Amino acid sequence: SYTMQYNIYTGTNYSTIVGDGTSSTSTRSATFYSTGTAKTSTFNIYGKIPKNQYNVAPGFYSDTVTATITF
After folding, report:
1. What span, in angstroms and rounded, lies between the C-alpha atoms of 39 and 7?
2. Whole-model pTM?
3. pLDDT tens digits, the chain, 71 residues: what are they?
């Protein structure tokens, strides 16, 4: 089985990695106040696969990204 390395970033400049806030990563958050009206928030994230991964075979790769939502 082959593994392909990648990171998930907060923006299209690929400079800040989404993570738990440690080791130079960034968390994403939103604040809502109870007003009786439904609120939504959208966070775009961007994936990037580093080049020169020579030990990776062509094929289909998949992964699961987990988001923790606290309220």
Report:
1. 29
2. 0.72
3. 788 999 999 999 999 999 888 998 998 887 777 777 777 778 889 999 999 998 888 889 899 988 877 77
